[in-house]
Recover the amino acids of this structure.
């Protein structure tokens, strides 16, 4: 009976125990594998979190840097624009002031020329001739040498030009001619013209050289001085 009944039962039990042991071993292996996979997943998840945090930190830092750059650029652009507007406003103000000064000066000089032209009489014209002769006789140095060379190059065909604001009477023309010949020691051919714009003045020119005296010269010199120093003119 033992051989035919008990032994099969024992074999069945042993087989059952082997199966259970195999299943337990498989379960343990599965559990170990699952644990390993879980650990691997956790490690990867931690690495991902660290990488994400690092990328977020770098992105935040880059965004802040770009923000500061854009703000600095905007401030610089605003300052440049403000400076340009201020510079343009100053230039416009100076230009307007200069234009007002120039127009005022021009009006004053035009009025002065008209008044002096209206007031010029024989005595003033005679005095203009006398002053021109005095200036002629006072010429020296390089001016005298240059004018002398220019006059020596003149001829009857290409005479020196003598312009005056008024018709020169024969007596005054003769006096100027005599002064020229005495000063430069030679006969000088003259072409005489009337130039009212000289305003009671006389001008001698030859070969690009010029000697002149006129009230207009004084006005032109004064105008140039005021144009060079408008601030002083405004203060005056």
């Amino acid at each position: 009976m033992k051989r035919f009944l008990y032994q099969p039962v024992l074999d069945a039990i042993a087989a059952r125990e082997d199966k259970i042991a195999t299943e337990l071993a498989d379960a343990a292996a599965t559990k170990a594998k699952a644990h390993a996979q879980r650990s691997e997943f956790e490690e990867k998840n931690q690495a991902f979190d660290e990488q994400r945090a690092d990328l977020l930190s770098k992105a935040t830092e880059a965004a802040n840097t770009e923000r500061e750059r854009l703000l600095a650029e905007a401030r610089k652009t605003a300052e440049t624009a403000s400076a340009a507007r201020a510079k343009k406003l100053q230039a416009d103000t100076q230009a307007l002031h200069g234009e007002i000064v120039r127009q005022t000066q021009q009006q004053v000089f035009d009025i002065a020329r008209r008044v002096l032209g209206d007031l010029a009489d024989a005595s003033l014209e005679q005095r203009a001739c006398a002053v021109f002769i005095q200036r002629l006789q006072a010429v020296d140095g390089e001016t005298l040498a240059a004018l002398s060379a220019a006059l020596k190059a003149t001829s009857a065909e290409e005479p020196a030009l003598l312009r005056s604001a008024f018709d020169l009477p024969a007596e005054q023309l003769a006096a100027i001619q005599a002064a020229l010949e005495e000063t430069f020691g030679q006969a000088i051919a003259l072409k005489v013209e009337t130039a009212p714009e000289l305003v009671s003045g006389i001008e001698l020119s030859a070969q690009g050289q010029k000697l002149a005296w006129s009230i207009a010269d004084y006005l032109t010199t004064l105008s140039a001085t005021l144009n060079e120093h408008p601030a002083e003119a405004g203060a005056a």
